[in-house]
Batch of 4 targets.
Target 1
Amino acid sequence: METSYLDYAMSVIIARALPDVRDGLKPAHRRILYAMGQMGLRHTARHTKSAKVVGEVLGNYHPHGDSAVYDTMVRLAQPWNMREMLVDGQGNFGSVDGDSAAAYRYTEARLTAIAEELLRDLEKETVPFIPNFDGTRQEPTVLPALLPNLLLNGTVGIAVGMATSIPPHNLGELCDAIVYLIGHSNASVEDLLQFVKGPDFPTGGTIFDQSEITRAYATGKGAIVTRAKAEIVEEGKHGMQIVVSEIPYAVNKASLLEHIAELVSAKKLEGIRDLRDESSKGDVRIVIDLKKDAYPKKVLNRLFHSTELQTTFHVNMLAIVDGIQPRVLNLKGILEEYVKHRKEVVRRRTQFDLTKAKERAHILEGLKIAILHIDEVIATIKKSEDRDDARVNLIKKFKLTEPQANAILDMRLSQLANLERLKVETELKEKLQLIRDLEALLKSEAKVLGVITEELKGLKAKYGNPRRTEVKVAGVKEFRAEDLIPNVSAIVMVTKDGYLKRVPPDTFKTQGRGGKGVIGLTTKEADVVEHLFATMTHADVLFFTTRGRVFQLKAYDIPEASRTAKGQALVNFLNLSPAEKVSAILPISDLSKDEKYLVMVTKYGVIKKVDLASFANVRKAGLIALKLRGDDLLTYVKPSTGHDEVLLVSRQGQAIRFREKDVRAMGRVAAGVRGMKLAKKDDIVVGMDVIGKGCSPDSCEVLAIMEHGYGKRTKLNQYRVQGRGGSGIKTAEVTPKTGKLITAFVINAKAPPTDLIVVSKNGQVIRLPYAEIRIAGRATQGVRVMRFKEEGDEVASVTYV
């Protein structure tokens, strides 16, 4: 079993799956090209039925299945697979959409002009020949291959225990690199990369990251990121579009379109309105129409991330060296093997030409002797009994060789004319000069390399064409969520029972003051909306808990949901303990650079100031933000500059305003100091805000909202600055009609919020213009802001946008 499997494995490796480093061909490809050459199917000949070619290959060289041979030949004729086609096909040879070619009885083929460069000088004994499978013919073990085909067209093959994956390249770049290598044998891979910029795929596209390209060519292995060529355009009636004009190598266009359509259908790709394939023969054009509210760059990034518009070509430059050994080679190694092969071909070709020249010169020397002594030659032939006797007599008399005597006997009388005699002498002179030149070439490796160089320059001049694949020096960065998600406004809701969701601000349309609003979410029985804030989707959000801990999430990590959806449980996102709840939420990315501290306030009026830098790296398990005493809970966290003022408001309608400097900065685990003295037993802090420099007593106001839907605005200048730790002054008249205070904010009237959003405990939401709330004095009840649909409902949470 072991012996049999090893034999099989070696057969697959050497004789089927891997290319020879010298001509870049696998046995099947080599036999097809050789058979077509033997059939005379040059690029100038008429196309011949593919069935005839397949039959020739099967019958004489490659005893395998006809479909295998035909499929191999078809690939050699496909411009999206071959950088330079080796077969010129006529008829249906498939498409980039994965359509198969027509049956071989319908299609026709011949060699391309460039394919003939692989076969050039084959008749001059430049390569070894072996018997075919039944011993009736000879076939080459390798082609002379003036074309550097291994890198030019690349290859993919899977053998036993090994595989090869070599990308296509640009012919002009390869010729320049080989010429440079011939002149600089000590050149490094980096030197050669001045010429070979990277893979040059027949389908174009863009490749990224010079460092990864260099690594692939230096080691023979690497991963090169390839992207489609896509641009964002604005088309009159269609709006914004993404137009794809080139796709990555080896990507099936039809499958790509199908995949995009599936992602759109599954709502994994947002913002796409329509998808069309407007490709024509030879040109790719995929048009993606975008919705009006879509962000084109984000949609394109999502396409690159989720579909085959961006792929990775894994380079593994494995090839058969010396006809027997599979080896991974770097760029220099492959080019050196090519030069080594070409040197051998040039030597063998030169030796063949030298032998032929010597043979012809030898004959010409005999003819020259015969012409000089023509009368004696004629007399000798006339005296002879027959041709054989004449040959013997000529050899004896004129000291000729047998081939010379035969040539003299084959002479026509017309060759005795003066001009014909001159032709013999001139040709002999030319042959002798040719012999000297060929012998000098064989003796000098430099001259052999010079011949190779000139041939490569001629090859580039004849067949070279511009690069199709663009090379970007910088690497394509890994897609972060920010690249795929638009940075837009969002409203985040968190309920008392720990459910959160994110909705667009325009979910709630603006209504008049005193309206009933709309249902904003479906809450569980006895659950209420507790936190509501507006931010941007790319913002970092800090979640402070009642236990004094802090966690961090990106706003886009909060699931987007419909207006009436309940949302998802916070425990799915934060590592909360059973009795722990989120008490304060801070979108930290929205902070200004002047804000350097976080001011924290507890339920019972304890205040603490911490340097913002202490929360730069919040672990997944959270960090301690505040050490709590007894049953106290952390309830408010706001940013500050260190030179601001702080306003605390209690549930019973008391408020205190004091300077932030009265609170010194502390470490994360410190407990804090008293901020407000709560006079009544059931009183707690329900409102806290930081008054910044841009907020003067005349321009700012305090917005207070009460639990029965009443609210008011009061000028900040009605609140005098006091010392930290006092019980404050009255900020609202708390009555059974208004209910106790729910929350309070400090608002800058110079740049007031557009709207206020109020949410009830039963999930009712109203969005109303901020300007509709009346300005009133400190000790007043305010005006009705919200009416409730259900009796007993109360205000739960408030935010402004």
Target 2
Amino acid sequence: MQTCASIVCLFLVASAASSVVAQPAPAIQLKQLIDDAWQFRLREAPTFATRFGDHRYDDRLADESLANQQQRAETKRKFLARWQAIPRNPLARPDQINYDIFGRLLQEELAEYDFGMHLIPLTNRWGFHIWFPELPQQIPLESVADYENYISRLRAFSKYTDDHIELMRAGIDQQLVLPSVVLEGYHDSITTHIVDDPAGSLLATPLRTFPERIPDSVRRRLSDSVKQAITDSVVPSYRRLLLFMDQEYLPACRGSIAASALPNGREFYRHRVRRFTTLDLTPDEVHQTGQTEVRRIRQEMDAIIEKVGFKGDFAEFVQYLRDEPRFYAETPEQLQKEIAFVLKRMDGQLPRLFHTLPRTPYGIREVPEYIAPKTTTAYYQPPPGDLSQAGFYYINTYNLKARPLYGIVALSLHEAVPGHHLQIALQQELSDIPPFRRFAGITAFIEGWALYAERLGLEVGFYEDPYRDFGRLTYEMWRACRLVVDTGMHYFGWTRKQAIDFMAENSALSLHNIESEVDRYISWPGQALAYKTGELKIRQLRNHAERELGNAFDVREFHDVVLGSGAVPLLVLEDNVNAYIAEMK
């Protein structure tokens, strides 16, 4: 009996040991989780998958219905439970970074869902109805199959529109709606696409330049199908959207502008502050930082006014800049040429600042007319994941009197090189990080880098003209003011007029730009806090590295460290820089 008991005991011990051995190591568990979540994301976001270079879902649009939103959140909660079950300490440093960023992004997505942000699926400057007409520029159209996939997506737009209307109706029921003030003039973004002749639709542009390999007979069939899909699906969808917006949504929009006025609004805004800064900051701390930065930058601006010998105060100098014709382009072509010249000069200076440069090129495009009046001065569109196209810097040529030439250096360095294009293209070309990080949109890092990039022009001979330096300070002041007015409106009870007046008193931005920007902050709470917060952290880390390393500091090596992991939360960036300093010392 004792022998049998011993055998049973040995068997149980062996079985336990076997089960331990069979359990995947934490690194393997993490990799599998990240892979599973990535495949889920590609399935759930087909147009993102296409941009990434995965063409399995090129014939469809996302299911954005209420039921699928709930199912999507449930799947993410299961991913979160798997993430929480993985021990972090045994992971190597690169895997710990993956672990931390994956968990952070997942928790933020679930928080957004729990706060009901999927029920407000558009803003005054962005939404499904605005990006969809740009689809032909964002997908491959090289073969018959590509065109047939495109036609399938045109047909799917009807349900896609109804899904978004369903979300907004639920938002009305739960009092999760946009402020009415930011929707003034929204008609143009919809009515532009309600056309009598489908050939006049922006979505018909692929019919103008077929690839040569497609024979004429097939071109005619594809042309007819595209036009039919526009007539039967796209145009009626925009009509339904316009009717819904006019008759249901706009009457239900709120008069208040503050995020804190939403259900559970103050907690929601505190979440937004943490999300977009990636730091454990309060609205009060952000507001005070903004006030401090505004005072500092204002002193530098006043010094330039004195330097150029202007006889008058700040407000009079700003008015002079707004009225003086030499500071403005007369045609969109002139504005584009000025910008192209600035960027070509910067291209030649990049080796002084960077060891590693991206292989992917960039180009310049005009902001589409139908959104130009309500959108920002410029923005950047990254290259697709397979790097089959360039990145593009979009320039707003609407209302040229709102686009001063003295600001184009800072603006262009921000949007193209060494700003967004250089950073995002390098990130997408990284081969040693998982895909979710290659395409991570961590705003504090991305926008913080781009604002820091504006300042790099000082180091390579830009801004020697005092007016252009004033333009640089104007853009920096713009981002500092955001810290004050975003928190002011969403947390401290500021009115829209208070925000506009504060920015007008402290910056040289045109009134058109100021009003557009304030409306953007109203409809997108917290996002505007990322720029200055990220830039301050990068500058702080650079100053620290310069002090610690002295003559051994090389700005090109520092930039390789900052950009070498892609977009990361600011505390991860701080750890990376500190590790670099320790290694150098």
Target 3
Amino acid sequence: MKFYSHSKKIDGNEIVGSKLLQDHISGVSAVAENHFCANLQFSYSTEVLKELSDLIVKFHDLGKYTSYFQNYLLQKEPIDSNLKQHARLGGYASYNFMMEEEKKALISLYLIFHHHGNLISLDDFAGKIDENARRVFEKQRNDLEGKIPQIESELGFNDLPYNLNFPDSSKVRKSCKVWVKKKADIEDYFLLNYLFSLLIEADKLDASDTSHYIRKSVDSDYVDKRFTKTNTKLSDVEELVGFSNNDLRNLCRAEVVNHLDSNNILNKRIFTLTAPTGIGKTMTALDFALKLKTKIRDNEKMEAQIIYALPFINIIEQALYEYEQTLPSDEIRILGHYQFGDVFGIHSDSDEESYQQKLMKMDTWQSDIVITSFVQFFETLISNRNKLLKKFNHFAGSIIILDEVQTLRLDHMPLLGSVLHYLSKYLNARIILMTATRPKIFELAEAEILSKEGETVDSLELLTDHEKIFSLYERTAVVPLLDSLQNESPNRSIEFGDKVFKEYWTPEKSCLTVCNTVNRSIEIHNVIVDLLKENGNSNPVYYLSTNILPFQRLKRIQNIKSDIENGFSPILIATQVVEAGVDLDFNMGFRDVGPVDSIIQVAGRINRSNSRYQQNEPLYIVDFGECQKIYGQLTYQQAKKALSSNSVINESGYLKLIEEYFDNISERSSFRESRKFFNSMKTLNYDSDNKVDCPVSSFKIIEQSDRYRSVFIEIDSYSQELRQKYIEKITGELSREEFDKNFKLEFQQRILSVPSYLTNELPQINEYEEDILVVDYDMLESYYNEETGFIRTVQSDEILML
């Protein structure tokens, strides 16, 4: 008798089996076995884990052998919606098969039980082994009686009838309760997620007939081929004055890579790379990762995947471009996985590969190198969601580069530092944290969480003499002007223009001004435009924030860069969107008081070229009175304290300034939420209606707010066409594949996130779509300004909007 795992339609309506169940289970086993990492560091040995993984895979679709499922699959009557469910029967069989080791039995039962859904808390799971589940099981078991010999032959198991028994529900409940209350261990979170990921990734790859990728050996010298290589280390040079930027980059890269000659380098799991902006951290980290990958291959006999995660789309795309310029695409598969990632750029293994198969490749990171977002990375690492956990197993044995880590929320740092520590400990991942401002992510992890678990972080700084590099730079200086604007002033924007901008700016200088809120930045833009007109200045003025459409931001950055290169001395008024990864080089700047690390990031947009004719170019810090509303009173107080202790802070003093600031703000911060999330991971509280307990399911790397709505702007006739194509997609007139291929990116780049109080009069984009509002082309003049974006005529306190 033939049993099928999947079906398809032929000749219009007829449904036939498309894959034999035996072939599907065999295919899933092959993929899971191939992706299994032999260098895990769990309490269970590699052999035991492989055996457990194989058992879970072999039993996961046992329920598909019932006639109830086969009738449902082939749409033959009778179809029973309860009895067709297949994900539980194999869990019961595996539980009985493993009964001699209760924990492994529970793991197999739990993971097979959920392989088509999200993970839930262990307590809630135990409650589902009830009388209703028993009744379903009894009928399914009776249905299998005449098929046992064939099933045993196809699965390669004997004594299946002895294992087809319903578990003792009271025993399961008690075991789960003891596990959570008395034996909770963070290792279990990583073990369950890893085994679950192996199963569901393999299941989905085989079900969609998507080929899994075998990672390749990669030459370690591609960065050397693109950039000048030096064997001189930074520590070998006594006097660095007079070295060019390129020379400094090469010295720093040599210093970092030199660590790979250390005898115990493969025993290290966590690395930090602390260096000033503009020192070439992206290529330095890639060079180190490629050479480390070779060393791992030679010594541990495995191909490590390189995973590079960044916070913002613009720097993700910039990094993707740099990687593609450095590495040959015909030899190395690089995958960009982020909001605007192009599924149609995915390498095809077959001319007939479908859109869904390409999408599956992207979602499961089938590549040598992945460049992705912090959202994708951290919300996979801390997650209960089936869709995200497909790729969790790719963390095992990987080399992970995390860039611009100072952008992570301070209140999350103890949690994220702890989770990265355990990721390296149990899944044998190597982690490189890169930053110019050295946030105390691991120090906070130890103080708030790890010390209570008896753990410490053993990290290695790759740029050993980074203080030497920091002390060398005199590109910029932070100049506090915190008392220049008066509290009683009715309009600080006008006061800023008349008292501060006029005094410190001169027309021959390009200038950046960064505000904490969109409303303030629009006001400042308008004030400066009027000021220049009054004085007859011809400097081009630009505005940049998430209040303007994404495709316009990209063009604007290109225009600003061109103006700077041609000596037109442009003026840019912006929000925090320019703080990281925007490669612009101004002569001077102003910034509203904010977190000290953010201030240092803005300083990195000034005198980036390190001109020998320009030194200590100023970034003036003013106080518009909005820092505490955006970042909180503690940040405001500590930033003012750090800045007020100095009249001028030269770049050589930035490292000390930032360390003192982080020390002070960390001592006074509450990390209660971090500790709660960690406890949820440890106790396997994957999901709960009580969000106050911070179940794993509620973790978000970026705080979600219902105070914003997505608004599509019909900025031109092409936008009208895009809107129509989107409507055709959601009504089924246009396939998702065609929309994604030809229209998705342009459509998304015409969407703004707008405060809800400004959208009350806006209609939905159409009757089927409630989540997206629209500004029609004939409404454009009332809602959208070409220079400053969405028109904000209603005043309200703002939360941070970049």
Target 4
Amino acid sequence: MKELLEKIKASACGRLVIPEGRPATEELSRYKAYLKVETHRLLLQHRAGAGGLEICGARALMLDLLLQHLWEVGRATAPPAEAKATSAMALVAIGGYGRGELNPNSDIDFMFLHDCGSSRSSQAALARMVDAVLYPLWDVGLKVGHSVRTVEECMTQANSDMRSKTSLLEARLLAGNPRLFRSFEETLVKKCVQGREDDYIAERLADQKERRARFGNSASMQEPHIKSGCGGLRDYQNLLWMAFVKYRKRSLAELQQSGLIANNERKQLQAAYDYLLRVRTEMHYHTRRAVDVLGKSLQPAVAYNLGYKERSPSQRIENFMREVYTHSRNIYLITRTLEERLALLPRSGVAAGLSKIRSLVPARKPQAQVFDGFRFADGQIHAVSAKVFEEDPRRLMRVFLHAQQRGLRLHPDLARLIRNQISLADRLLLKNPHVHETFLTILNQRGAVAPVLRAMHEAGLLGRYIPEFGRLTCLVQHEFYHQYTTDEHTLMCIEQLDNVWNGSEPPHSNYKQLFQSLERPFILYLALLLHDVGKAESGRHAVTGASAALRTGKRLNLDAGVTNTLKVVIEHHMLMAMVSQRRDLDDPAVIRRFAQQVGNQETLAMLALHTFVDSQATSDKLWNGFKDSLLWTLFFKTMQLISGGAEFAKAGEKRREALKAEIAAQRPPFSAEEVQAHLEAMPARYFDVHHVNQILEDIALAHEFLQRQILEEEDPLAPVVSWKDELDRGFTTVKICTWDRAGLFRKIAGSLSALGLSILSAEVFTRSDGIVLDTFFVVDARTGNLPRASQQGKFQDLLSRALTSDEVRFETLNGNPQNLHRPYQAYSGEHMPTKVRFDNDSAEARTIVEVETEDRVGLLYTISKVLADVGLDISTAKISTERGAAIDSFYVQTEAGKKLTDPARQRQVEKRIREAIGALGDS
């Protein structure tokens, strides 16, 4: 680094020399050339592997030399009286520039500090110096932030605003009067720091909490904010700011010399900070602007430019991001520990979060206790001696059981001791049956597992004890649904399962009784811990994970029955979501096949809970009331089949007969002949999915439609539409009654899409007399809320026009991309490939056409139009749209009422679908 700085200084000496008396404003080309040459020098050094601190420090020096030059030129060209007045001025760098750290496109913040008084000549001299520095900087295109203040004005500003105080705490003299600057520094500490330490630290901690929450509260986000996210540059800086205010130490080296931090902590923090600065530098260079979010579209180029040259783009990104996460995690964990150890947290902050761990012992007055080599006091666990783990390595696991059972936290010194002695967790310990018992006991404490496992992971024990999980640490997930790394997602799953036990509000509370019914909850917790371990290897991760579960079960001495249940849950952990959201739950074959794969009631309950918490932990936007109702429908139908009750078909027949009797007992306001006609005209499956009130609603709808045929001769094709907002289920039900005709589904889908409505699912029933009763479950596509009244009113008008007049061109109506909300963004230059599959096994009389592609406006309408054009009738559609990806299943029959089995025709249909989707353009 020293050599680079010397080259920059030598370049400034040669390039910044101008003729005596010549103003800087006439030498702009000279300054532009200097900046261009030195900026290119830094780029070459950066791409050659220079560290982040080296490049950022060199850029700060490059600008230091320019500003010092402009200051001296301003003094030299000023009239004698004004030149003399400059002795009461100083040019001071503040903020990041004051730290001497500037990324390529970071702003330059400095201050004109003065003690000029209010005389006209002094103010004129000050104005001249300000202009002499600022105008050339603006003219050469630099982004500058500046202020002009006296020492007293600095104190007022610092005490009025925490961020301003922080910026001034990092002030550095560039040019001018050094005595004035020293006076500023001394006064700042005396009037703005001394006696105000607690207030400043409280404000910084509050700002940090808000900032971390704003950027995901995790150091493992798929798109991390390098500057302000958890484990970002700001966390490191925040620690030093608070340490200076409390201890007057400005660097990690000073903190180490004072015995406040350990050598390994300093090294890890410095390495992490340097690396993240290097990443941010590359982001600035690549985008040519100040960028802080390392988005998915940016990751491939940044990885390549930083030297990750693997042939596989996904491997390149995975290796790069894993290093980013490792360093971010180090900053996050170490700074969080140091905040507590350095007594930066208020007293209440030490105990914050204890409520997350449910205490298993009666509440009593806090009292210091010593047990098993540990002392329990003040809400924390302390080691009695530094040899506590050397004396008995099994305590490495037991200490976490103590924490769980007592609702305590590890003291930061104890957490550091575990990390430093983690090598004691050797092969013998990993096979020790006593340690297995402790670990399984921890997993068996419903509602209190996540905080303990997270603490174990942060201390380095969890990945060492369960090496299958350890390989997930900081592992990138390439699936676009996920917003966390694999290890963080796994811990979030376990936290969500805890929330089921502790939750008092839906949707978590809906699953509490199911969770309570499990006699061996540790199996489900272990399944969640292992469900994604297959992602660290090649192949289908669920199958690979199931094999890993067998090895883990053997190592933990689990019996054969438990191990098999663990294997089945992991192998099928995605099955229940797929079946409930993409299969016809009214088809007995679907339920029968799923029941055969599940096997028993316990496994079914675990899969239902696993499905719910896995979705909750994947993204906060994936779950809704509609999916919840689908999951429960599949659960109850499967439970009925596998619980030893009547055979499914016979039970369904009895249900239909009971429904008919109940309808008759209701004495509906229709003739008996009309009711009987409706019941005889509907297919058998209709009675499997409708209760009495729904059937009566359908009869009323059909009655109104037939009445219109008699009374409204000019519009016999106009549909009858019924809307029902179902807030508890999270969607609106739209029922349409009309005559069956070709392309009906397409026109309904097109009308809904044109008005900005997203179709979650659809039920299609056709009476034997040709009257259709179609039901669509919809939400507003932009907000996910229930449709607005204006949308409902316009839909009926549009659909009536489509069904009764000339063809409506839905392509033009639904072409507004603002109708859909697409949070997912693909990698730059990459797109989710369109997949079309034909399934002739999962339904008894229909072919399932599955389409996966990037979501686009009008996609459902486009696909249904293709299916109609090629002569396929849609009887049911299972629609799912997640984070910019559409996963749709259409149940179809040919014109002859048969399955689509001809391979040549399947290829033709697939080609037409792909062409139509391609014509929509990129999402």
